[in-house]
Every structure is written in C-alpha cells, then in structure tokens.
Write a structure and sequence with these properties.
By secondary structure, the chain is mainly β. The chain has strands at about 20-25, 30-35, 35-40, 45-50, 60, 65-70, 80-85, 90-95, 110-115, 120-125, 130-135, 140-145, 155-170, 190, 195-200, 220-225, 230-235, 240-245, 250-255, 275-280, 285-295, 310, 320-330, 340-350, 360-365, 375, 380-385, 395-400, 415, 425-435, 455.
Length: about 450
C-alpha cells in the first residue's frame, strides 16, 4: 500500500498534519514493513498504526487491509479516513459522485487530491457536469483540484496510473484552510472496478438512526458514467420504488424522505437500499456511489449530523464459482486418486438487476498449475446457456471445440467469451475434464490438484 497523502503533503491546510496508516492482518504472525524496514508482527484481527509521509510504502508477508487516518492536531473535530486499495490495483481513470461548492458558506467545498507515484510529472484531465480542465501533478507528488460544482460528479483521467481521494469542507481557493464542520472524504474507485449497482451497508441520515430526525444530514451520492435511469430500491426487496433520470456525471443525492421521494420509506435511513442504473436501451450503466454528510443539510453545532462518510463499494454483477467431482473412477477405489478423471464446473451467475448481452465476459482457466499433474481430456469442454434461475428458460448445452494452435485446451490463454446473453438471475456453466497423471508421472510429493482461473467482465 502506498500513502497518497502524508504529514509532509504540501498545501494541505493542516488536514494531514497527523497521518497514519492502520494495518490489520488476516493471518497469524504477519510481518509489516515500512519502506522495507520491519515494523514487527501482528496476528489475525490485530492492527498496527504507522505514521507516514506522502509516498511511503507499507508491505507485508501475508494478506492485510489498510486504512489511512488523517487530521489536524489540536482540532476539535477535524478528522478524515480512507480505505486504501493495493498499489497494484490503482488505475488511470476515477469517478466521484460528490459535488459541493457551497458548503460552509462557500468556504468548505469538495475537492480531490491527486497523487502521482511515478518518476515523471503527469497531466490529469478532469470533467465535471458542465466544465473540464487539466491539472499537472509532479513526479512523486500531489495536487488538489478546483471545487467540484454543486450537482456535479467528476471524472479524473490520465495516461498514467495515479490515486485520488476527496476532501469535503476544505475552505476557499486562497488559503485552503481545512474545515471541521462537514469534514469527510472518500477514496475514488478506479473505472475498471465500477459496476452498475451498489448496496448501501450503513446509511443513517442522522445520529438517531431510523426515524431519529425529520431531515437527513447524510445522503447517498450517485453519479452515472453515462446518461442513465437511476433505480432506487429503498428497502432492498428487489423492486425499485423510485427512478431518477440523470445525465452523465450529474450528482444525485438520495435520502429516505417522502418529501423528496414520495415512495420512500420515510425513516431517514438508507441502510440496505439497492441502487442500480440502466441506459435507455436497458443496458447497464456504471455508477460511482458514496454515503456522507451533505453540507447543505447540516449546520454548525448540529447534534444530529454525522460528520463522516465513505465510499460505497460497487456490488458485483457477475459472480463465479468452481467445483470438481470424480467423473471416471478408473481404479475403482471410490475416491479421487492417480489415473482418475475429474470434471470441473465453472458457474457464472448474473446477480445484478439488468440483463447482460453476449460477449459481456470472458472465462479464463489457466493452463498452470492444473495441467502440471493432469492432462486435458480432448473435446470435453461444454458451455451451458440458461442453466437455472430464469423461469421458463430452456437449457442449451453447446460443445466448445478444442484449439488448433497453442494448447488444445480452449479456456486457457485468452479464454472464451459468453456466446449467449445472460439474463438477471441466470446461471451459465462451463465444464471440462482432466485426467490425473499416474503415480510415476506425478510431481514428487504432490497430493493436491490446484486449478486457477479468472472471470473478466469486459468494458
């Protein structure tokens, strides 16, 4: 994990005067490193706190998660935190749904900090609902954007990878003093990780929780990457209660209040709400979503305001599962053993709210490691359209021909595209068989067959 901000970040108005990364381990005896130097070990569920400067790097020898916490030392309230994504998952195109240029009397708008990890300066282009421009970000340094206008989301893009995060309530153009009334922020999600749906985990409108106030101070912010209809299912029961037409990069603020949305539950709580987007032709449109305090709905000394916010992670549209079973017990012992055949089944489920066309995704099953100790059974790959989940649908099993170049196995290398549409709730199957090598052929000491693959959603 690379720190995109730190205690040495320039022009931060003391917003990052204190900056630490909180690292939590998933496994026992996890060693944590800062810039290659050991910081000790922690066990599963434990965390360690490391103060950082901009550009410093946290690594570990086992899986961890990391959050960055920043604030002004001695301030009454000013604090922001951000979930970090691994450096290898950074992108070159990001979106945010949060636009506010009038909070705190116009002195506390929302801006974006851009960090460039590379060895050369980069140009980052920004696009708002009705304007655009560019920002030069120095090598190994950061820059802040202009305020994102009210009612606008934002897109930031470059030819090189960078990282981006928002700050709300960051004061005016001149001194960039950071506020402490509506201060919050969220990390932007790279474009290739967005989907067309989001599930709100915790979305209180105020400190009292459901029915705890008459006006929500915190809202769900949504922006589509293209013109779309936004569907709002307030109770997450699978039926949309309200729809909103939105232009590309328009920022939609959603609250559970009937004076804004007549079909809402009116409990000032967006927890559990499902939000998704479609184009006019019914195809999915990706959205960026956040939950956080709305300065226009809050005020100084407001005891019902939650002075915080966060990104709402994209909800996967397609999921993949893989299983195996004994298909030919060649030695008749009733268990999987050398010389037997296995059949692998890859199940793809459209868990989204939108039907998806053919050529939406690619399935790749890597040649190694599975074929290190097995051999592919020729012409055994099948593709099953509508393998369950769609009422009235008919199952259609299609043979997949072996490759004529490279390996014969059609799922390795570039994999294969889905050749049929996959409707919402539908499953599609891919099956193939392998023969486990005999004892003299197996790698010495091997007792496990490992098969790895990936589902790639295109576009």
């Amino acid at each position: 994990f690379t720190a995109p901000i730190g205690e040495n970040t320039a022009n931060d108005g003391s917003a990052f005067e204190y900056t630490s990364i909180y690292v939590m381990a998933a496994e026992a005896n996890t060693e944590i490193f800062l810039n290659g130097a050991s910081q000790g070990t922690i066990n599963a569920g434990e965390n360690t706190v490391i103060r950082v400067d901009e550009g410093e790097v946290i690594t570990s020898d086992r899986p961890v998660q990391a959050d960055i916490v920043a604030g002004q030392i001695g301030s009454s309230y000013e604090l922001r935190w951000y979930s970090l994504i691994p450096t290898e998952d950074w992108g070159n195109v990001y979106y945010t749904p949060v636009g506010d240029s009038s909070g705190n009397g116009g002195n506390g708008p929302t801006r974006v900090f851009l960090y460039n990890p590379g060895g050369s300066s980069i140009t980052v282009s920004y696009t708002f609902l009705s304007s655009s421009g560019t920002i030069e970000v120095p090598a190994g340094g950061s820059r802040r954007s202009v305020a994102i206008p009210d009612g606008s989301g934002a897109k930031f893009s470059s030819t090189s990878e960078f990282f981006a995060l928002t700050l709300t309530d960051v004061a005016n153009e001149g001194d960039f003093n950071s506020g402490q009334i509506y201060d919050w922020g969220h990390p932007l999600i790279p474009e290739d990780q967005l989907t067309n749906q989001a599930l709100i985990g915790w979305g209180y409108g105020c400190t009292g929780g459901p029915n705890g106030c008459t006006t929500s101070r915190s809202v769900v912010w949504v922006t589509p990457v293209a013109a779309a209809t936004i569907f709002i299912d307030f109770d997450g029961d699978g039926t949309a209660d309200t729809t909103v037409l939105a232009a590309a990069l328009q920022s939609i603020k959603i609250v559970d209040e009937t004076d804004v949305y007549p079909d809402a539950e009116n409990d000032e709580d967006m927890s559990g709400a499902l939000i998704y987007a479609e184009a006019a032709d019914g195809s999915p449109v990706n959205i960026a979503v956040a939950w956080g305090q709305d300065p226009e709905r809050s005020g100084s000394g407001d005891g019902q305001a939650l002075d915080l916010g966060t990104t709402v992670p994209p909800l996967p549209v397609l999921t993949a599962d893989k299983s195996s079973e004994l298909s030919s017990d060649n030695d008749g012992d009733g268990v999987i053993s050398p010389g037997d055949e296995l059949e692998y089944t890859i199940t793809i489920l459209n868990s989204g709210r939108v039907n998806l066309p053919a050529t939406t995704y690619t399935i790749v099953d890597f040649f190694l490691p599975v074929f290190k100790d097995t051999t592919y059974v020729a012409n055994s790959v099948t593709y099953t359209d509508n393998a369950g989940g769609v009422v009235g649908g008919s199952e259609n099993v299609i043979g997949v021909p072996d490759d004529n170049s490279g390996t014969a196995f059609p799922l390795d290398e570039d994999g294969i595209l889905n050749s049929a549409a996959i409707d919402k709730g539908e499953r599609q199957l891919y099956k193939f068989r392998v023969r486990i090598k005999t004892v003299p052929e197996l790698t010495a000491g091997v007792d496990t067959i490992v098969n790895e693959g990936v589902l790639r959603i295109l576009g």
